[in-house]
Amino acid sequence: MSMKVAFLGIGGMFIGIVMSVMAMTNMIPPMIYIYIMIGISFFMGMSILMVSILLNGVMGPFLDAKFSGRNLIAVLTASKRIKLMSGREKSGMTKTEMGLYITPPDTVYSWPNGAKGGIGYFKYGTTLTPKFIKGMSKLRESGISNFGEMEKLNEEAMKDGKEFNIRLD
């Protein structure tokens, strides 16, 4: 994004210099020069503002993923927010600003804009697989709502010489 903003700024400076030279050499009347410079300044300011809003908001990662061919990952963060990030995929890993995410083929989906990606969980550096989601649903149906409850059931089963298993079929 900084290159686009820099390009707009350099373009505005160039136009300003050309207009100043034209006003000094009386090629254009000074009042028209002022009106043109106000219009150009307003246009450049609004362009920079719109580029900044679009690329730093929700649209930025979507546009980046669409036009650069990157993966788009929706990361579930520690603060219970979803952060959209684009990242390069290399050898089954997607590198984002929050780190590396393992992206096995069964966790890669298509977004509406045609980009590939998935849902990542901030702590584990992996995208959520369908088996994981199905397993968590089965655990909830069994009345297990957190990891501590599952550990207790596993310990009780181990005391009896068994293993704690839930079938996903």
Keywords:
about 170 residues, alpha+beta, 3 domains, seven-stranded mixed β-sheet, 5 helices, rod-shaped
Structure description:
The mean pLDDT is 76. The two termini are 47 Å apart. The chain is rod-shaped. It is of the alpha+beta class. Helices cover 50% and strands 20% of the residues. Helix 1 packs antiparallel against helix 2. It folds into three domains: 2-56; 70-127; 131-159, no CATH class. The relative contact order is 0.08. It has helices spanning 2-24, 30-56, 59-68, 130-141, 147-159; strands at residues 71-76, 82-90, 93-96, 99-102, 109-110, 116-121, 126-127. Strand 2 (82-90) and strand 3 form a beta hairpin.
Number of strands: 7
Considering DSSP H and I runs of 4 or more, what fraction of the residues is helical?
A: 40-55%
So what's the overall shape?
A: rod-shaped
Number of separate helices: 5
**End-to-end Cα distance:** 47 Å
Any chance you could write out the topology, listing elements then pairs?
Elements: H1 2-24, H2 30-56, H3 59-68, E1 71-76, E2 82-90, E3 93-96, E4 99-102, E5 109-110, E6 116-121, E7 126-127, H4 130-141, H5 147-159
Parallel strand pairs: 1-6
Antiparallel strand pairs: 1-2, 2-3, 3-4, 5-6, 6-7
Helix pairs in contact: 1-2
